[in-house]
Amino acid sequence: MSLVLCLLLVVLVAGCGSTKQGGSDKKAFRIVTSFYPMYIDVINITKDVDGVEVVNMTKPQTGCLHDYQLTTEDMKTLEKADAFVVNGAGMESFLDKVVKQQKNLKIIDASKSDEINLLKDGDEENPHVWLSVTYSIEQVKAITSQLCEADPAHADAYRKNALDYVTKLDKLRTQMHEELDNLPHKDIVTFHEAFPYLAKEFKLNVVSVIEREPGTEPTPQELEETIRQVNALPVKVLFTEPQYSPSAAKTIAAETGAKIYQLDPVVTGEANEQAMDAYIDAMKKNMEVLKEALQ
Fold first, then answer.
1. 189 forms bridges with which residues in the sheet?
2. Which one has a higher pLDDT value, 204 or 66?
3. Which residues pair with 205 in a beta bridge?
4. What is residue 7's predicted lDDT score, i.e. its pLDDT?
């Protein structure tokens, strides 16, 4: 199948873990993913495809890759890869090193799509694209079209699986809009800069961010300003993330009487076949949390 036809059809239908698809004795086409959101997409796209192996490079608890440093084990994993699926948009700051050392490795950039308009944090692009369901769909399409180019022998199967997964994501998007578009309150205070794409899609207003980068405690001045902003809200709620300590949020809650909830950026989890529905399940839970918090 030609690349052009594959692209057209995709548009129209629009510690490491590994998953082997099928049981062929031939050498598997080995796909490595940079972190959990990419792994979820790829195992859905490659579901039951004979002769394909999917490996997630980073350990289950890694989270976002803002300051991630490649390990010797990572480089060994990439040496055996036929394709490396990354989020792109600056998430994998180590990517230049990979390209330099693995010159023949096919890099598949999930954010390489004309339909994805990147948001900026100051001068830097925000890479948390997948937290918009619409953009998550576009990432699935982008990965699929590039996999068709890298592994044309499995293009038909990739395309069929992508259609199935996009259909599920589209149903999720419809449900979330039905539940969230008419919430009486729209102001949210989040833990770090993971949620602007979610906020944009569902018309939420990110009033303040507690920690711009996870693990960087806010300064006293930043805490004071966030407390002031929270006190001005009609509904005082803070959204932490299950992957990180809520200590700063607890300080703000103690000063404002705000209630703390959790939103999951879907960046951690076990790399196995059970992860196939992890994004959909987490986003449904996020939907329920937002419904409860913003009434």
1. 208, 238
2. 204
3. 187
4. 47
CB atoms within 10 A of CB 158: 27
| Packing angle, helices 278-293 and 155-180, rounded to 10 | 10
8 A C-beta contact, residue 157 and residue 21: no
Residues 259-287 as b/e (b if ≥16 CB within 10 A, e otherwise) read ebbbbbbbbbbebeeebbebbbebbeebb
Question: Burial level of 220, CB count in 10 A (0-12/13-18/19+)?
Answer: exposed
* Cα 137 to Cα 174: distance, rounded to the nearest angstrom: 13
pLDDT tens, residue by residue, 152-186? 999 999 999 999 999 999 999 999 999 999 999 99
Two structure tokens written together for 274 = 């059970």
Give the tokens for residue 83: 């394709």
Residue 216 banded pLDDT, cuts 50, 70, 90? confident
